[in-house]
């Protein structure tokens, strides 16, 4: 720890009450989402490529309060310890800033999310196109505002495209939360904290292929179907936004 | 790839690029002979600098600083601590500088960059020794409670002159800092006075009604220069830093008083006249940075 104190004294946040909000009665007919969106409406997405000049490719994504940066490095030499491999390797890492969450965190790497990101992207990348080498995908969550993993995955596929890595298709990811009787798409942190179940789909819309599907919590079959339809629809719309972002970047650089 | 269908002027561009990679030092020295740098800057001029305050919604104070492509995001979170016995009426500041793997191809996850630790220490030394912030201002209840300001600076894009950008973002974050209004509750803990409480029944008198802003005695600004042969290059890029190794960092306060000066080794010796030239360049830079900071603050007030 830096600072004058040498060893940092124990501190506490003066606002512990904010996280103990009473649970909103979600069963009510007149329940509204914390940001006044309708249930099937995604947050406005802002995407931009080329956020980091020193990376081979990079992208910045902002969905409401969720803000992430993804950098792609490589293809570059694999670590010495790695065995020979005919196909390329993918290496993913997600970390959080100390101010990403309301309490002052440690800002450490998140191994669980990193492996999920790896699994979500693996199927979309043509690994045969860079044998013996590694592509590194590093993500930093600047602010966590809910649906962090889907945002990171979508942003990462945009960064891969920006780096010129061969892909079968762009990967878009959207999650849906189940709150009582309601399904809400693209949940914010508050909704995620009291959700009954969550479903996330990561897919390549133009090939109609799903690279990752995760369902947690309690789901009935009709609900699952409805949620999947919702996610797939939102994914293809998100993919359009991502595609136009890439096109804009190219036309901007030509001018 | 582009060279396959490239026209003649593209192929000559490729040659320059190849020369740049194969003989980086000679490439740069050709430029220096003509008193210009590869990015068309003069030797003594710094890159375009921008500053945006309040970039992080969840923090009490934050700023995003850009010098050329070098990008820094600084955020301050205020927490409460019990002051030490030696200084019962002083708060504290914990400064940390992070270089996440996204910022540069040289940083790998799991292994913190050496440069990050060096800059972390350099920043806290500079800020504490300058007296820019009076730690007594951070006191809440003498001997019982004081603020601990966690200042975290993240490098989002590392393209040279990291210390300058980090210091600029830190100073800007402190000038953007809004200290929350707090009161002492019955358990002896400090709690935030929420908006509703202010309007409705006020249970406890706030302990820091007046001290909502942190007073900065004299903001600090810095300029890093590279010394190579008898050239002085202000505000180097990452490429320049990797080729020419001698750097000098000058930190001045807003009345141009010298606060600190770092010259961490390097093959070029710094004579008095060279140091004086560096300080003169830094003075000019302080003027620019003061304008940048003032503009950012007034932009914030308009919104």
TrEMBL record, chain A:
One of its GO terms (cellular component) is cytoplasmic exosome (RNase complex). Its main location: cytoplasm. Residues 1-16 have a biased composition (Polar residues). The keyword Zinc does not apply. Residues 41-165, 169-230 form the Exoribonuclease phosphorolytic domain. It comes from the Eukaryota. InterPro entries: ExoRNase_PH_dom1, ExoRNase_PH_dom2, ExoRNase_PH_dom2_sf, PNPase/RNase_PH_dom_sf, Ribosomal_Su5_D2-typ_SF, RNase_PH. Keywords: Cytoplasm, Exosome, Nucleus, RNA-binding, rRNA processing. CDD domains: RNase_PH_MTR3 (cd11371). GO terms for biological process: nuclear mRNA surveillance; poly(A)-dependent snoRNA 3'-end processing; rRNA catabolic process; rRNA processing; U4 snRNA 3'-end processing. GO terms for molecular function: RNA binding. It is found in: Cytoplasm; Nucleus. Belongs to the RNase PH family. This is Exosome complex component rrp41-like protein.
Automatic annotation (TrEMBL), chain B:
GO terms for cellular component: cytoplasmic exosome (RNase complex); nuclear exosome (RNase complex); nucleolus. Keywords: Cytoplasm, Exosome, Nucleus, RNA-binding, rRNA processing. Its main location: cytoplasm. Coiled coil: none annotated. It is found in: Cytoplasm; Nucleus, Nucleolus. Pfam families: RNase_PH (PF01138), RNase_PH_C (PF03725). It comes from the Eukaryota. InterPro entries: ExoRNase_PH_dom1, ExoRNase_PH_dom2, ExoRNase_PH_dom2_sf, Exosome_comp_Rrp42_subfam, PNPase/RNase_PH_dom_sf, Ribosomal_Su5_D2-typ_SF, Rrp43. One of its GO terms (molecular function) is mRNA 3'-UTR AU-rich region binding. Residues 46-180, 221-284 form the Exoribonuclease phosphorolytic domain. GO terms for biological process: exonucleolytic trimming to generate mature 3'-end of 5.8S rRNA from tricistronic rRNA transcript (SSU-rRNA, 5.8S rRNA, LSU-rRNA); nuclear mRNA surveillance; nuclear polyadenylation-dependent rRNA catabolic process; rRNA catabolic process; TRAMP-dependent tRNA surveillance pathway; U1 snRNA 3'-end processing; U4 snRNA 3'-end processing; U5 snRNA 3'-end processing. Belongs to the RNase PH family. This is Ribosomal RNA-processing protein 43.
């Amino acid at each position: 720890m830096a600072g004058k104190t040498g060893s940092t004294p124990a501190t506490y946040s003066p606002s512990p009450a904010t996280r103990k909000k009473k649970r909103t009665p979600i069963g009510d007919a007149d329940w509204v989402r914390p940001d006044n969106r309708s249930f099937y409406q995604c947050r406005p997405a802002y995407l931009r490529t080329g956020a980091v000049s020193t990376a081979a490719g990079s992208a910045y994504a902002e969905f409401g309060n969720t803000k992430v940066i993804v950098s792609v490095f490589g293809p570059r030499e694999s670590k010495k310890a790695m065995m020979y491999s005919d196909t390329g390797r993918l290496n993913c890492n997600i970390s959080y800033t100390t101010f990403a969450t309301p309490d002052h965190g440690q800002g450490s790497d998140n191994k669980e999310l990193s492996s999920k990101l790896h699994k979500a992207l693996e199927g979309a990348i043509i690994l045969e196109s860079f044998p013996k080498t590694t592509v590194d995908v590093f993500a930093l969550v600047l602010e966590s505002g809910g649906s962090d993993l889907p945002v990171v995955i979508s942003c990462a596929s945009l960064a891969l495209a920006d780096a010129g890595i061969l892909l079968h298709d762009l990967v878009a990811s959207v999650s849906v939360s189940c709150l009582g009787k309601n399904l809400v798409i693209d949940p914010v942190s508050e909704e995620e904290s009291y959700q009954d179940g969550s479903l996330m789909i990561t897919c390549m819309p133009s090939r109609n292929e799903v690279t990752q599907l995760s369902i947690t919590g309690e789901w009935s079959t009709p609900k699952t179907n409805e949620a999947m339809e919702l996610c797939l629809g939102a994914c293809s719309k998100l993919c359009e936004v991502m595609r136009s972002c890439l096109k804009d970047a190219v036309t901007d650089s030509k001018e | 790839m582009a060279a396959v269908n490239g026209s003649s002027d593209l192929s000559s561009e490729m040659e320059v690029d190849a020369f740049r990679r194969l003989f980086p030092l000679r490439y740069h020295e050709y430029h220096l002979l003509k008193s210009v740098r590869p990015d068309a800057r003069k030797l003594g001029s710094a890159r375009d600098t921008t500053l945006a305050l309040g970039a992080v919604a969840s923090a009490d104070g934050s700023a995003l600083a850009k010098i050329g492509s070098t990008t820094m995001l600084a955020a301050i979170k205020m927490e409460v601590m019990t002051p030490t016995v030696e200084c019962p009426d002083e708060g504290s500041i914990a400064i940390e500088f992070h270089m996440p793997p996204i910022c540069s191809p040289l940083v790998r996850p799991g292994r913190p960059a050496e440069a990050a630790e060096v800059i972390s220490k350099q920043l806290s030394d500079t800020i504490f020794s300058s007296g820019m912030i009076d730690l007594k201002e951070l006191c809440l209840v003498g001997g019982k409670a004081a603020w601990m300001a966690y200042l975290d600076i993240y490098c989002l894009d590392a393209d040279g002159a990291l210390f300058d950008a980090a210091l600029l973002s830190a100073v800007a974050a402190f000038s953007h800092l809004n200290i929350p209004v707090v009161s002492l509750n019955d358990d002896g803990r400090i709690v935030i006075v929420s908006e509703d409480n202010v309007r409705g029944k006020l249970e406890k008198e706030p302990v820091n009604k007046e001290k909502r802003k942190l007073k900065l005695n004299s903001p600090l600004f810095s300029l890093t220069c590279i010394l190579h042969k008898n050239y002085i290059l202000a505000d180097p890029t990452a490429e320049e830093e990797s080729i020419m190794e001698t750097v000098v960092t000058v930190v001045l306060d807003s009345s141009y008083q010298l606060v600190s000066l770092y010259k961490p080794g390097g093959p070029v010796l710094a004579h008095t006249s060279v140091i004086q030239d560096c300080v003169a360049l830094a003075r000019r830079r302080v003027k620019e940075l003061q304008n940048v900071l003032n503009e950012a603050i007034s932009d914030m007030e308009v919104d």
